[in-house]
Amino acid sequence: MTLSSLLKPESVAIVGASRTPGKIGNFLVKNILESGYQGRVYPINPREDEIEGLKCYPDLPAVQKKIDLAVISVPAPRVPEVAEQCGRAGVQGLVVISAGFKEVGPAGMALEKELLRICRNYGMLLVGPNCVGVMDTHTPLNASFSATYPRPGNIAFISQSGAMLVAILDWSRQTRLGFSKVISLGNKADLNEADFIADAAGDPETKVILCYIEDVANGPQFLETVRAAGRQKPVIIYKSGASAAGARAASSHTGALAGSDLAYETAFRQNGVIRARSMAELFDLANAFVTQPAPGGDRVAVITNAGGPGIITTDNIEKINLKMARFQKETTEALRARLPAAAAIYNPVDVLGDGGPDRYRSAFELVLADPGVDSVLVLLCPAAATDSEKIARALLEVQRNNRHKPVFGVFLGGEFLGKGRNLFEQAGIPCFTFPEPAVSAIGGMVSFARRKQIPADEPAEQFANLQPDTVRSLLDKVRSEGRLVLLGSEAALVASAYGIPAAPIHLAGTPEEAAEKAQAIGFPVVLKVASPQIMHKTDVGGILTNLQTAGEVRKGFIQISENVHRYFPDLAIHGVEVQKMMPKGDEVLIGLTRDVQFGPLIAFGLGGIYVNLLKDVAFRLAHRLTKREIRGMIMETKAYTLLRGYRGEKPKDVNSLTEIIARVARLAVDFPAITEMDINPLFAYPDGAVALDVKITIS
Ligand code: COA
């Protein structure tokens, strides 16, 4: 059974239907009938013969007809037996309204598992339990107990909170928003947000997909779904709640830099989800997408009758992914000819406080026609002479014949501008009271338009010279010694096995061995105490640099051992590591941490000892990480300014960095046992890059 047939059933049974007004079982029957549902409806209640004019059956087997969908509203403990009956009767989908499952504790959890087991056993789809129900205005079907049924339209709204859902539906009646589908997810025992997003993506009646969620049920499924759906239709999500605390141990730099919400933020951005920051923004965005054409680019023109709001709007535009449009010469010349001398003819165009319909019309016409303009924001402030109605009419006349670019109104004020605002809204042009939400709406539309331009399935990265067997045996060896943190020399071997260039480094147990290793590597060398327990080796005299001879190395070994012993008299060290001393490069960091939902998160940023202070880091999920994404990630950081060649320095090899990050991501995907990894610093050179310090923690 597909989800569409769950929302377009030919017959519906309501188990727990009731004659008693005010009971959920009564609302369910009334709602289905009032929605104009054309299929057969079977109320089920052992004590009634008739409910709302429909014949009532004592139980499901008594119906003896094909039933597609059963809406269940009996007390939770009775739900499994009803589900069993449904399964036997060949019902294809269940919507379980009843509360009293997972959300109430272990006993409810057991009940929910039993319900799911029965559904799986009979191949039935399950919405809920603990939900308000589902609606499809095009079927039409209202299989919910919501007091409000929305206007038909093309927004699919999927909500994890039943209360938010009914509140929004009620509010939506005073707006012009129309819905195609409304889904209350409830406990998501079976069907989850991703299932309904995928369905809505393929639904010809849906133009925009809106979600309110508190978490995602299945990270990888969600990522795959939104990635595909977000190319077809805008997927706009308002996510509340922080991700599970303690999801990652913050023992590494990367872990400490990754905030609790970061994985969601990254997952959304990387996979084409438009994130709304509030419920209001969720619906502002929906309204923009439903009513306006897609912008051809990010260049916004602003027309205003006052300076201040023009400046605020410009600030907001420049804060996000948008640009102020630069008009063509013809446009500014025509503006100069048609507006008073004191008017501003560059963007934002200021028609001045006494600007009436004629000036607005001229400015709007010219700006809208400029090929360097992708969208237009019209601001109107209530000056004494402002006639919002006449101005709105003039603007709408122009817009009527020019519907190819998105247009938004910002009428700053209240009642005084009410008539104009109403005209805009009636004409299907979003009209806001303040500039910020209008700018965010354009920003969301531009993100979506950009996303569509990226080639659909970039081929997976191919890497030569991966040696997973080497990594596996190294990790096994470390585990067999009862350790979870690799020594620097071991971590460097893991890196090298995945083609991540690391400065040669070897463990030595004695001064003599250290001298031999140094000779083999070539001078100068660096000595580092080999002890995963010591976090800041420099602070305890555990590092010596620029050693030039075997004698210096021997002496250095002894000196480090003594230094460390002074700080940690009881700590047994593994020895001293001898590393080739590398020429100085730009210090960057590459890191890896894991999120419970979305898996490995890769970090890139400015490296060195000030990492936590400067926090110049960008993140991406390793899941399907492409080189295009990696380049975008590098360019987001301030480190990029450095790498491009700061103050006459030679530019560094960003291609090598891209390749190294891709390989770290691949290592993370291939080895789930690697829970954290920090490469800090990695020296970036004009030609190539090399890891100096690699720290790996395993589970
Ligand atoms: N088959 C058919 N009907 C049955 C039945 C069965 N196996 N078992 C009971 N019924 C009937 C009852 O006789 C009753 O009918 P009546 O009104 O004629 O007496 C009806 O189903 C409902 O049962 P009742 O015991 O009266 O429960 P209720 O209506 O008080 O509550 C729920 C039932 C499901 C609504 C309630 O348990 C519940 O979960 N409420 C919360 C719902 C909720 O908030 N969901 C989440 C929203 S976000």
Structure description:
With 699 residues, the chain is of the alpha/beta class. The chain is 38% helix and 21% strand. The protein contains 24 helices and 30 strands. The strands form six sheets. It has a seven-stranded mixed sheet with strand order 9-8-11-10-12-13-14, sandwiched between helices. Strands 15, 16, 17, 18, 19 and 20 form a six-stranded parallel sheet that branches. Strands 25, 26, 27, 28, 29 and 30 form a six-stranded antiparallel sheet that branches. α5 (162-172) links the parallel β10 and β11. The chain starts with a helix and ends with a strand. The relative contact order is 0.07. Coenzyme A (COA) is lined by residues 15-16, 18-20, 23-25, 44-48, 59, 73-75, 78, 82, 97-100, 130-132, 162. Coenzyme A (COA) binds at residues 15-16, 18-20, 23-25, 44-48, 59, 73-75, 78, 82, 97-100, 130-132, 162.
Keywords:
699 residues, alpha/beta, 7-stranded mixed beta sheet, 6-stranded parallel beta sheet, 24 helices, 30 strands, 38% helix, flat, binds coenzyme A
Task: Record the SSE blueprint.
Elements: H1 3-7, E1 11-15, H2 24-34, E2 40-44, E3 50-51, E4 54-55, E5 69-72, H3 79-88, E6 93-96, H4 106-122, E7 125-127, E8 133-136, E9 141-144, E10 152-159, H5 162-172, E11 179-184, H6 193-201, E12 208-213, H7 219-232, E13 235-239, H8 253-257, H9 262-270, E14 273-276, H10 279-291, E15 299-304, H11 307-319, E16 323-324, H12 329-338, E17 349-350, H13 357-369, E18 375-380, H14 388-400, E19 407-411, H15 418-426, E20 431-432, H16 435-453, H17 468-480, H18 488-497, E21 505-508, H19 511-521, E22 525-529, E23 543-547, H20 550-567, E24 576-580, E25 586-595, E26 599-606, H21 611-614, E27 617-621, H22 627-636, H23 639-643, H24 654-670, E28 674-684, E29 689-691, E30 694-698
Parallel strand pairs: 1-2, 1-5, 5-6, 6-7, 10-11, 10-12, 12-13, 13-14, 15-16, 15-17, 15-18, 18-19, 19-20
Antiparallel strand pairs: 3-4, 8-9, 8-11, 21-24, 22-23, 22-24, 25-26, 25-28, 26-27, 28-29, 28-30
Helix pairs in contact: 3-4, 6-7, 10-16, 11-16, 12-13, 13-14, 14-15, 17-18, 19-20, 22-24
